[in-house]
Amino acid sequence: MFNDPPHEQARILIVDDMASNIHVIREAVRDLGEVRFATSGQAALEMALRAVPDLILLDIEMPGMDGYAVCQAIKATPQLSDVPVIFVTSHDQDVHELHALNIGGVDFLHKPLNVPVARARIQTQLALQSKTRQLAAAQRDLADVLQRLPAFVAYWNADLCNEFANDEAGHWFGIDADAMRGMSARAVLGEANFAALEPLLLDALGGDSPSFDLSLTRRDGCVLHGQVALVHRPQPGGRPGCLMLITDVTERKRAEQALRDEKERIRITLNSIGDAVIATDPAGCVTFLNPIAEEMTGWLAKEAIGEPIERIMPLQASDSGRTVGNPVRLVLAERRTVGMTLDRALLRRDGRVLEVEDSAAPILDHAGQLTGAIIVFHDVREARALAVKMMHLAHHDALTNLPNRTLLQDRTQQALQQAENSGERLGLFILDLDYFKVINDSVGHSIGDHLLQEVARRLQRAVRSGDTISRQGGDEFIILMPDPASIEQLGAFANRLLKAVSEPYQLAEGRFDLSVSIGVSLYPDDSKDQEELYRHADAAMYQAKEDGRNRYRFFSAEIEEALLTRQALERHIRMGAEQGGFQAYYQPKVDVTGAAVVGVEALMRWRDDNGDIISPGHFIPLAEETGLIVPLGRFILRQACLDGKRWYDAGRPLRIAVNVSAVQIADGGFSDTVRSVLAETGIAPELLELEITEGVLAANVAQTMEVLTGLRGLGVSIAVDDFGTGYSNLAYLKQFPIDVLKIDQSFVRDMIGDKSNTAIISAIISMANGLGLRLVAEGVETAEQERELLKMGCSVMQGFLYGRPMPVAEMEGWLRNDVQHLAGGSL
C-alpha cells in the first residue's frame, strides 16, 4: 500500500579515544555506510545532534565522559533516543555487558574485534533500524489516512467497548477518539442508535460481517444517514471483536428523497394540467399517459403502456383526413423539439375526431443519451371556432359585415404587389353619401343604420367577385377593383354605382332618396402606393362634391401630370444623374470693357424619356419639393467644378457660378458637400461662385449665416441672385458675407424707356460700389441695354446678347472664338 522511501546510505558514528581502535573499527565497517568518528563523549553528542546516525559504535572506557554516560545522554535526548548503540570494549565480564544492555545498548562487541562477527551484528542492527523506520512511516501514513477518511472507523472488543476510533475531533458522535477509548458502544452511540445496532454488532462478534443502511441521531439532534459495514476481527488470543465502518450518505439520501418528491410533484402536475401528456421510450412505445390523455385518446394508461404511439395517438390532417406521422417519430429520429402543428386531428379510440394542437420534445438523460420523447396536446375545437369568429369581427364592420379598414389595407397591399408584379392597373373608389348626416339626424340612427345596410347590399350586387367593398365608418365606403380592363370600364362602373345608390329606398318608416359622390384613383397612373391611392381618390371625391354631388370624378389630369413627372424625375435620379439625362449647360459672363469672358453660370437641363430637353422651371420646383434637389445640386456642382478645372488647366481661368437652393442650404451638410467637391475636383476655391436668392437669406437667418460663413471660410465667393425682386434689405448685405450682386433681368428688360427700372438699377449699382461688391447684370439682350449699364457703372453682363445657355462641348467651341462672338455681338 505504501512505497518504500528512497534508499539512503547509512550513517555510522564511531566513538573511541584511541585512534588505533577507531582505525580498526572503521576498516571493519567501511563499506557498510558513511562512517564518522569522535574521540570524546561530548564531541560524539554534538556530532550526533548535527547529523543523526543510524548506528553508534561506542567505547566504554574513555577519559572524562565514559561510554555509559554517553549512552545515557543519547537515550535522554529525544532526537537520538531511537538510535541503536553497540558497545565496544575489552572487558569480558558479564556484569559490564548486562549494564550496557540495561542502559539502552543493543549489543556488545569485544576487543580485539572479530571482524566477520562484528560486521554481521552491525549489518543486523542497520537492517533492523531501516525496517523500524519503514514501519514507523507506514504507521504514520495509515494514521493520517484514518484521520482524514470521510468515514467513522472504530474497533469494539468482545464486551462492545471501544479500543480504537479515528474520530479525533469528535465529529461523528460528539466524543473525540481519546475520550471514546474504553467507552461502551451504548454510551458512544446513544440509546436509540445502540438499540438498532446491538443485534448486528453481536452478529459481527459471532463471525458475520453485515452491511446495511441506518439513520443515526447525533448528539445535536441532527439525523445522519449512514452506510454501515461491520467486519468480524478477533483480538490476539482469539477473543471476539469487530471493526465498524460508517460512511455518511446523508446528502445522497436527501438527493434520493428530493428526486422521489420531484417525481411525485411531476406526476401530480402532469395529472392535474389541462393538456394531455404522453411519454414514450426510445422505440416510440408508450410509457405514460396522464388522465387528460386517457380521456382524449379513449385509452386507459394500463392498456396503453408498451403500445406504439401511433396506435394510441393516431393523427390525420384536419382538412383532408389523410393519415400523418406522429411528431414523436421525428423527435426520436432527429433528437430535437418539434414545434406546434396547427392542422392536426386526433382519431379517438371510439372513432370520433378531435381537432388538436401538439408539440413534442426529446427526453435526454444526464449524459445526453436519448431515453424517450414526450408529446403534449390539447383540444382546440372551441378555440379555433372562437378564433375564426374573432378574426372575422376584427376585420369586418359590425353593422354591414363588410371588410373594415384593416382588412381593406391588407387586401390593397396585396393587390398593389400583384399589380406591380404583373404590370396591371388597380382602381380605388371612395364613395361618400350626400347629405346623409342630415337624414341620420332627422330620422334617427336606427333608420340610418338600416339605410347603410341596404346601401352595402346594393354595392355588393354591383361589384365583381374579385372586388372588395369596405365600410370605413360613418357613411363612407371604399371599393377596390383589381385589374380593370380600361379607364372606360372604371367610368362605366362608377355610373353603375351612382345609379344603384340613387334608386329609392323603401323602409317601414317610408321612402328615402340618397345620392353619392365618388372619387377614383388609379395605380400606377396617378398613385404609386396605397397612401396615394387613398389620398388621391379622397381628393377626387371632394371635387365631385364641389362640382354638385351625385357624380364621380377621376383624380385631376394636372396633378396626374405632375405626379408622372415626379416619378420620372425620381427614377432618373435613382439611375444616377449622369445616366438619368441631366446635363450641365453654361452661359457666359462678359466684361464688356475688355471684351473678355470672365466667367460662366452653370445651369441644369434634363433630357426626359422622350429625348426632349426639359427646362429647369419645370422640374427644379418639383425637385425642391421632394428633396431631390440635394443629389441634383451635388451633381451640377461637381460637374461645373470638373469643367472649370479643365478650362483652368487649358489656360482659361473662368469663375464658375452655380445656383444653390434653399433646400440645399437647409440640408445641413452643404458645406461638407462643397468641401468634398473642391477636394475631389482640385479646382481653386476662388474660381467657384455660389449664387443664392434673397429669399434664402430671409428664410432662416441664423442657419444661412452659419452656412455662408463656412463657405466663405473655404475660399469660395457668394453671390445674391435676382437682387431687387424680393426681400431687398441693406441689413442683409451688411450682415451676410456677400461678394457679388446680380441685377435681376426684370429690371434690365424694361430699363430702356422705363425710368423707374433705370433708377432702381442705378441705386443697386451705387449701393454695390459703396459696399465694395462686384456686379453682374442679367438678361442683357440688346446693345442699347449694354451701353446704358456700362454708363451707370456695371461692366460685367450676362444674357442672350453674348450667348444662350449651351452644352459643355458647344461652350468650349464658343470660348475658342469668344472674341469673334463678342465683336459680332456688341463691340
Automatic annotation (TrEMBL):
Record's keyword annotation contains Iron: no
CDD domains reported for this sequence: EAL, GGDEF, PAS
PROSITE patterns attached to this UniProt entry: EAL, GGDEF, PAC, PAS, RESPONSE_REGULATORY
Keyword Phosphoprotein recorded: yes
Pfam families the UniProt entry points to: EAL, GGDEF, PAS, PAS_4, Response_reg
Modification type 4-aspartylphosphate: residues: 59
Residue span, GGDEF domain: 424-557
Key words of the record: Phosphoprotein
Residue ranges annotated for the PAS domain, each copy included: 262-314
Domain of life (superkingdom): Bacteria
Residue ranges occupied by any Response regulatory domain in the UniProt entry: 11-126
Domain (EAL): residue spans on this chain: 566-819
Domain PAC, chain residue ranges per copy: 210-261, 340-392
Family matches, as InterPro entries: Biofilm_reg_signaling, CheY-like_superfamily, EAL_dom, EAL_sf, GGDEF_dom, Nucleotide_cyclase, PAC, PAS
Name the UniProt record assigns to this protein: Diguanylate cyclase
